[in-house]
Write a structure and sequence with these properties.
This protein has 196 residues and is of the alpha/beta class. It has a single domain, classed as Rossmann fold (3-Layer(aba) Sandwich). The protein is 27% helix and 32% strand. It has five helices and twelve strands. The strands form three sheets. It has a seven-stranded mixed beta sheet. A three-stranded mixed beta sheet has the order 5-6-9. It is globular, with a radius of gyration of 15 Å. The structure holds glutamine (GLN). Glutamine binds next to helix 4.
């Protein structure tokens, strides 16, 4: 399995490390043509306004929408989750608008800008170590969305078909089980889809 990490801005090298620890190959995706070479795409944490701007500049918006429409797995973490959302709280325009959810940016406020915790995640047998940094929250999801974990009553991990999203940074710890779960999504897709 080859997993690409969108390398416009943000935590790219850390994701590539976790992908490799989880047993797949990780590559940095800088050009739209590379989407044809990968079995799954991670949109990393960073700054969603900047990632969105660079995606538009380099033609990634339509290319990633097509990539998703073909059923390929996409995993958005933190800013990447914001980029995937159909709706953003406030007057902000969505970026890719792929996942049926409403997201609030920087939802933890100043006192709790950054923290670590252990989360129960559906599909992972013991709690997952999660790092939250100026994290977004999923405020509301559509019927097609499966909620995989909550933190203090708020949704922080969700899946909708080929799309996976986390509010936190799973790539900043040695716990790579969410990457494993994503690689399994890519493997399952590979079994039903012959040729890229
Ligand atoms: N606060 C950032 C944003 O709104 C996301 C933070 C992160 O990715 N760690 O884009």
């Amino acid at each position: 399995m080859i997993i690409g990490v969108l390398a416009l801005q943000g935590a790219v090298a850390e994701h590539i490390r976790s992908i490799e620890l989880a047993g797949a190959s990780g590559i940095a995706v800088k050009r739209v043509e590379q989407l044809a070479e990968i079995d799954g795409l991670i949109i990393p944490g960073g700054e969603s306004t900047t990632i969105g701007k660079l995606m538009r500049k380099y033609g990634f918006v339509d290319a990633i929408r097509d990539y998703s429409k073909q059923g390929n797995p996409i995993f958005g973490t933190c800013a990447g989750l914001i980029v995937l959302a159909e709706r953003l709280e406030g007057s902000e325009e969505p970026h890719l608008g792929l996942m049926d959810m409403t997201v609030a940016r920087n939802a933890f406020g100043r006192q709790r800008e950054s923290f670590e915790t252990d989360l129960d995640v559906k599909g992972i047998d013991t709690p997952l170590r999660a790092v939250f940094i100026r994290a977004p929250l999923i405020k509301e999801v559509g019927e097609e969305v499966d909620v995989l974990s909550m933190y203090k009553g708020e949704i922080v991990t969700a899946k909708q078909g080929n799309l996976l999203a986390s509010s936190y940074h799973p790539e900043l710890t040695d716990d790579y089980r969410l990457h494993e779960l994503f690689i399994r999504m890519a493997q399952e897709r590979g079994q039903t889809h012959v040729g890229r």
